[in-house]
Structures are given as C-alpha cells and as structure tokens.
Design a protein that fits this description.
Layout lengths: L1 H24 L7 H5 L2 H8 L5 H19 L4 H29 L5 H32 L7 H24 L6 H82 L3 H19 L8 H11 L7 E5 L10 H22 L5 E8 L3 E9 L29 H10 L3 E7 L2 E9 L2
Parallel strand pairs: 1-2
Antiparallel strand pairs: 2-3, 3-5, 4-5
Helix pairs in contact: 1-3, 1-4, 1-5, 1-6, 3-4, 5-6, 7-8, 8-9, 8-10, 8-11, 10-11, 11-12
Length: about 425
C-alpha cells in the first residue's frame, strides 16, 4: 500500500511540474522515457530503511525534479532556473492545501495518513494549476498588450496582507515575551519589509520595461506599415517612369519636327507639359536623403489630399547616428502631427515644407506645416510644449515630450515655434 501511494504521489507531482512548465514557460516536456524510468524510484524509496514519511515524500519530490531536469530541453542554467521557479510556485500552492488535508484525513490509518494527505494536496494543486492555466489562456485571447490596473491593485492587496501578517506577529510578542521569539520576530520584520521594498522596486522596473516594450512594438508596427508603403510608392514611381521613358522617343521626334518649322512657342509649351509630367512622377515619392526618414515621411504624406503642397529643400545623403527605433519615434510623431493638423481641420491651401541642413557632425531638419489657429498659452504644458488634443492618448502617439526626450537623449536639440500660420519643428541630430 505504501509503495502504491508513493507511486501516486510521484505521478501526480510529475503532472504538476509539467503543467507549471507549460503555464509559465509555454514548454511541453516531450521526453517520456525518463518519466517512465523514473517510476522505478518510488519503488526503491518504498523499500528503503527510512521510517519517516516526510523524508520519503521529500525523496519523491527530489526524484521528480531530477526527472524533469533530464526531460526538459535547454542549458543547465536555464533548466535550473525554470525548475527553481516551478518549485516555488508549487510549494506555495501546495502549502495552502496541506493543513486542511492533514486535518481532513484523521480517520485514515496513521501509517498512511501523511501519504494520503500529501497525495490529495498534490492532486488539488494540479487542479488549481489547470484552472489557472485556463484563466491565463482566456486572458491571452484578448491580445492585451497593456498591463491592466487591476494587476497593480492585486499586488497592492498582497503587500497589504504581508503587512497585516507582520502586524499580527508583532502583537503576539506582547503575549509571549520570550527573548528568542522577539529576536525571531525582529528577523522576520527585517526580512518581510526588505521583501516588500524589493517587490515595489521590481514592480516599478517591470512597469517601465513594459511601457518601453509597448512603444517598441508600436514603432515596429509603424515601420512595417511604412516599409510596405515605401515599396508600393517606389513601384508606382517605377511604372510611371517606364511609361514616360517609353514615350520619350516620340516626344523628341515631335519636338524636332516643330523646331524644324521654327515654331518656338509650341516647343516651349510642349516642353513645359513634359516637365509637368516629370515633376508629377517625382512627387509620387518624396526624398530627403535618409531612407528611414523618407519611409516614415511618405507613409504619412500618402494620407494627405493631392491638393496639399509639399516641398523638400536641401536634399542630401545623411546617415543619422541614432537607433532606427528612435528615428521612428521622432519623425513619425512630427509627420503624423503635421498630417493630422491639416486633414482634421480641412485647411485650405495647406503646405508642408521640409528643409534639411547638413553639417560635419549634425544634421538639422526643419518641418513646417500649416495650422488652423495659433496655439494659445493655455494649451502649452509646464515643459513649454503643446498639449495633445487627443482624448485617447494611449493609442495616439507618444506626444511632444517624448520626441524632445528622445532627441536630447541622443545628444541632439529640439525646438518648436509658430508664426505666419505655420507650426515649426526644428530637430538637430548627430550624423555618422
């Protein structure tokens, strides 16, 4: 009977470790041979000359950990970290059920009581993990990338419980004024308060890292969309250029013919029409000299009506010496704000002018766009930057403050001003 109970504990605990492995790390343990061979270990443990039931249960747990270590793929360090985290999770959940199970099976024969209690608590642990896994899967179906505020409330509740337990433990000192107990309580005080402090620091770190990752994901998504638009525009430009080249011989033959007849005015008019067609092809894709800036700029400019006048001045080859994600952060928000200002306010005779000045160490971009009304002082924040008028700030850009921070973090300079019906942004960035 003892050996059967140890076998049951072994296989249930093995299921627990596999379930936690899948829940935490999305890893399925596929090596079955070690698990089957491991079934011999409970038999060996059952016949060992060990009278303590707790020791035999501990040996089964050690056996399960060893089998999981051999069955899991990865380096020694990776497997060790995963199994340590699994052990912590399972220990916490199992301890919840250990006490009630110990009291529930007092009717069982004393020789097997601890085995039955351990087996049932591990089985309940497995059921709990399965429930948690299903809840996790349902949450993931919503594809949420933003950490819900309820998570922080839950963590705050956990910290509150820890402080409550600490307070109760300190109150007990008054009823048991034992020196050893007081020293032990003081050690627990330091340990728990230190743990709470580290937990808060860790939460802040996770929050900041998550927000950074959210922004990187948005940047990556924008870059992909911009690249698709870039290739579409280039393809369209190439098709139009081919058509224009194909007809060029006919154009030249006609020009030569009317020149031979000394019809100068007609030649000038015809050449002007040809130049207009050439400029139209050139305007299909705007070029500044930096591929990343051009890709982002054309992505947002493609959303503008054809009536909008766009000018690019000072085109030059430039390699900006900052990360591509930062280039995207800076220019996507600048060009998005410019395009949205014109489209949302339906500004007539609107213009966007991009001027590039290249130096030896830095490049300067001046972006001007028409605005409907001048920004008043009430709509300027304490940092001296225009406030966003969008209600859904989470899903609409990152704001002028982040543009400024990104530029200055990369040892550049950011300025803005407004005059003569234009909003002007000046960005100076280091170049290679």
């Amino acid at each position: 009977m003892e050996i059967l109970l140890l076998l049951g504990i072994y296989f249930v605990e093995l299921l627990c470790y596999q379930a936690v492995m899948r829940m935490l790390f999305q890893v399925n343990v596929t090596t079955k041979k070690w698990m089957i061979l491991g079934g011999v270990l409970p038999l060996v443990i059952g016949v060992m000359p060990v009278n303590d039931t707790a020791e035999k249960n501990l040996l089964v747990t050690v056996s399960v950990i060893a089998i999981m270590f051999l069955s899991t793929e990865g380096t020694v360090i990776e497997k060790s970290i995963k199994l340590f985290l699994e052990l912590l999770v399972l220990a916490c959940i199992e301890d919840i059920f250990a006490y009630p199970c110990g009291k529930l099976f007092i009717f069982v024969r004393i020789d097997y009581r601890k085995y039955v209690s351990c087996l049932v608590s591990k089985f309940l642990t497995f059921i709990s993990i399965v429930i948690l896994y299903n809840v996790k899967e349902k949450v993931n179906k919503h594809n949420k990338t933003h950490i819900s505020s309820s998570i922080y409330l839950l963590i705050g509740f956990i910290i509150g419980l820890m402080l409550l337990c600490l307070s109760i433990m300190n109150q007990v000192i008054t009823y048991f004024p034992n020196n050893r107990y007081i020293i032990l309580c003081n050690i627990f005080n330091v340990a728990i308060l230190s743990s709470i402090f580290l937990l808060v620091v860790f939460i802040i770190y996770i929050k900041n890292t998550h927000e950074r990752m959210e922004q990187l994901l948005k940047t990556e998504r924008l870059l992909k969309e911009s690249q698709v638009n870039y290739y579409k525009q280039n393809l369209r430009k190439e098709v139009e250029t081919r058509k224009y080249r194909h007809d060029m011989i006919n154009h030249l033959v006609y020009v030569q013919e009317i020149l031979s007849q000394n019809r100068i005015e007609e030649v000038q008019k015809y050449l002007a029409n040809m130049m207009g067609g050439f400029k139209r092809i050139q305007s299909l894709y705007y070029v500044t000299g930096n591929e990343m800036v051009d890709t982002i700029m054309n992505y947002f400019f493609s959303m503008l009506p054809e009536s909008i006048e766009i000018k690019i001045k000072g085109r030059c080859l430039v390699t900006i010496d900052i990360e591509e994600s930062d280039i995207c952060t800076i220019f996507s928000n600048i060009f998005q704000n410019a395009a949205e200002e014109i489209v949302e306010n339906n500004i007539l005779n609107a213009k966007i002018i991009v001027v590039i000045h290249k130096g030896k160490q830095f490049v300067e971009y001046k972006i001007r766009n028409s605005i409907l009304t001048r920004i008043n002082e009430k709509n300027i924040d304490k940092n001296g930057l225009p406030k966003s008028h969008k209600l859904d700030k989470q899903n609409h850009g990152i704001g002028m403050i982040n543009i400024k921070n990104t530029v200055e973090r990369n040892h550049g300079k950011f300025e803005w001003n407004q005059y003569d019906g234009y909003f002007n942004v000046i960005v100076i960035l280091p170049i290679k």
